[in-house]
Amino acid sequence: MAVDEQLKIELGKQGIFVTTIQELYNWGRRSSVWPMQFGLACCAIEMIATTMARYDLARFGAEVFRPSPRQADLMIVSGTVTKKMAPQVVRLYNQMAEPRYVIAMGACAISGGPFKQGYNVLKGIDRYIPVDVHIPGCPPRPEALIQAFMTLQKKIDGQPLTGEGRPRYLDAQAQGEFPVPVEGEHDLEPASNKGVWPVPITIR
Amino acid sequence: MKTVEEIKAAIEAAVPGAGVEVVPNPSPSAQHSLRLAPASAVAVATFLRDDAELAFDFLSNVSGVDWPDKEIVEKVKVTRQVAKVVDGVEQQVDETVDETRKRIEPGCVEAVYHLYSVAKKHGPLVIRMKTVNRTDQVDLPSLTPIWRAAEFQEREVFDLYGIVFTGHPDLRRILMWDGFKDHPMRKDYVEPDDFEYEPTPHDEVLARAQAHQAAAGTANPEGAGAGQ
């Protein structure tokens, strides 16, 4: 139940702070999204630049990059995911504690990018793990990563805590662990996780 | 630096029965190369490295080349006896006919090494080795014992082209995973078909996406987008 904005301001003037559990909870979630220290290719260089003084991702609560998946909330898949690396990426994602989010950064992470036709490149990490925000670009500028981060924060903010559209970890039925693909004789097996990635329908 | 012919002569003088041949390069660069016989390759390579004048002490790179089986079509004139009526009388007459013959030239896989000399400041010398065929006789002697720089690159050639280097200290796949069975840089490599989703297909990708859809029975009248 949302609090009337006008009433809230009015009460604020009287020194009374009114909020809902949901707002407070989501404010907490979105204001301390700690990314995992994990880079795959050239996009990682832009990601590093984003964290440095000029762009300063810390302003948004992404204060520190954690070197362990256990302590991280956000996986920024920054770069080309080769088929040899994909099982490791999924494994790292499985090791992250909820709540966890994924940003697929750059053309390679979202579709394979310029290496799409290569025999060794995964055509998008969203074939195996659920991606919250996709950033196009090759590589995307730090501003684009900040934009994606803000988009993620808006997404977190808009999530109700109960009912339809609640975060995955508040849903007892939702899938929590994602199967790690196995290195097969010709390709990864399975080639995609159908539960996460139903083949998108293109509308023309 | 000596010319390739001179190097060939030097090799033949030092290693009897070396079986070295010159592979000419007709392009303007005229960078001719030497093809070594696999049996004597290690001896020849040792000579190239240790000879005081040549002193090829630096291996710059190792590459693989895949030569698929080639079908050669040639026209041959054949003479044969044909029954013909000449001047009202049936006779056996010789007639020359053009006949098209096809033969398959077996392919091979080739390893190419580029050598330089840091001591003498010359190079490159290109040496090559050919396997017997592309399927079961694909071993070549490893030159890693002579130039340590070859180790990883020979592993890469083994991984991507499938040349088995005998005498290599640690011949494992280097780029693809161990359980992988194919050799992706070979011309006849078939890529896994994962073209089910192509948001903006064009050219080669369009052809592959259409092939995938035809195989999966999810053809789209527009021929581009993926169906479910």
Key descriptive features of the protein:
heterodimer; A: 204 residues; alpha/beta; Rossmann fold; three-stranded parallel sheet; two-stranded antiparallel ribbon; 6 helices; globular; B: 228 residues; Beta Polymerase, domain 2; 3 domains; five-stranded mixed sheet; two-stranded antiparallel sheet; 9 strands; disordered C terminus
Q: What structural class should be given to the helix and strand makeup of chain B?
A: alpha/beta
Total domain modules of chain B: 3
Please tally the β strands of chain A and state the result: 5
- Give the total of domains of chain A: 1
Helix content of chain B: 10-25%
The computed structural class of chain A is alpha/beta
The share of residues in extended strands of chain A comes to 5-15%
Describe the structure.
The complex is a heterodimer of chains A (about 200) and B (about 230). The model of chain A has no long low-confidence stretch (mean pLDDT about 90). By secondary structure, chain A is of the alpha/beta class. Chain A has helices at about 5-15, 20-30, 45-50, 85-95, 105-110, 140-155; strands at about 75-80, 100-105, 135, 180-185, 190. In chain A, helix 2 (about 20-30) runs antiparallel to helix 6 (about 140-155) and helix 3 (about 45-50) crosses helix 6. In chain A, strands 1-2-3 form a three-stranded parallel β-sheet. Chain A has a two-stranded antiparallel sheet with strand order 4-5. Chain A has a single domain, classed as 3-Layer(aba) Sandwich (Rossmann fold), CATH 3.40.50.12280. Helix content of chain B is about 20%, strand content about 35%. By secondary structure, chain B is an alpha/beta fold. In chain B, the strands form three sheets. Chain B has a five-stranded mixed β-sheet, covered by helices on one side. The interface between A and B is medium-sized, with 21 and 24 residues.
